Amino acid sequence: MSIQTLSGLKRGSVAVVGAAESDLGQVAQGSTPLDLMAQASVRALDDCGLTLKDVDGLFVAATQVRMGPMALAEYLRIKPKYFDGTIIGGSSFMTHVAHAQAALQLGLCNVALITYGSTQRSVSRAAASPREFNPFESPYRPILPISAYAMAAARHMHEFGTTRENLAEVAVAARQWALMNPKAWEKEPLSIEQVLNARMVSYPFTVRDCCLVLDGGGAIVMTRADRAKSLKQKPAYVLGVGEALSHANISSMPDFTVTAAVESGAKAYAMAKVKPSEVNMLSLYDAFTITPILFLEDLGFCPKGEGGRFVSGGNIAPGGKLAVNTSGGGLSYCHPGMYGLLVMIEAIRQIRGECGQRQVNHCDIALAQGNGGVLSSECTVLFGSENTLS
Questions:
Q1: Is the Cβ–Cβ distance between 6 and 268 less than 8 Å?
Q2: Cβ 22 vs Cβ 39: under 8 Å
Q3: Rounded to two decimals, what is the model's pTM?
Q4: What is the CATH number of the domain that holds 250?
Q5: Above 80 in pLDDT, residue 125?
Q6: Is residue 145 part of a domain?
Q7: Residue 355, exposed/middle/buried by CB under 10 A (0-12, 13-18, 19+)?
Q8: In terms of residue numbers, what domain contains 312?
Q9: pLDDT (tens digit, 9 = 90+) per residue, 321-351?
């Protein structure tokens, strides 16, 4: 089958040269999402030796800020030549990478800043991400987005024999990685029994199957590959990108067990000219324990239906078969509403070899998978070290 990649984008033509989080967890009282975006942006620029004066491309997605690029440009007192406010949920930032690559290649900008901030813990998730009324779903009073992902998990269990213990393995592995990350919110070990016996939220999910609700944000800085080599940090080159939309509401998802990551991943692999077997670590959006299982299947790391068994026995935990969510993920590290930017930051740091105790050996290719809405948008980015360009 022929895969249509994003036309004109060239493997390794651009790189991420700076990456940083804002403060995470519960931030200082009175902080705004724009404060966190600015904080992360300055830190990311300092990471690569650039300043706000160098930024001429701005990419912003947020649920708490209307007209994000305009608001942040005013806040930072910059006047970007190119800007983008595409918002498709937690995968928005992977899409921004693709759009920034296009803009950089065409010379529409020279330094692209992608950033995000959220104070959802401080103001409550409901206030930070209000739900739209859906006449086909809202009358049934679902607990969204939890119930939507719970339906996908229940269907996977019914169709393939996946168990609650399999789901719990995802949370336990994430916690083991988080214990090696000084920035992770969770600091205590977690067992399968603790996941299973925690408060039930929406079957089959207990509260430990669900992501954290925290404040936080992040930023990455991108530029063309020729310039990237002259900056402070080792570049993480963009080898491949892929984007796909499936639906908006869970009641319109064609198959609860198959996500649009099948399409986005195929596009990214084709552009990067790599196979799943060549990927050294995965940074997968884990809003709930079912999502890494679905993405492992749909991105080609195990057959459809085998994801639950694949994650079992510590296979994705430290020392396991495949390094997955080495930061601790949205389940144990940080999940500030839309998590995709932090998903990429961990992949970038693994490529740069700066993850300390949790560093993956010889990490030359890292995959970051973004997920938006209720399994609605899927975007894949493959990052590579300089070794992958030869």
A1: no
A2: yes
A3: 0.95
A4: 3.40.47.10
A5: no
A6: no
A7: buried
A8: 14-125+212-385
A9: 999 999 999 999 999 999 999 999 999 999 9
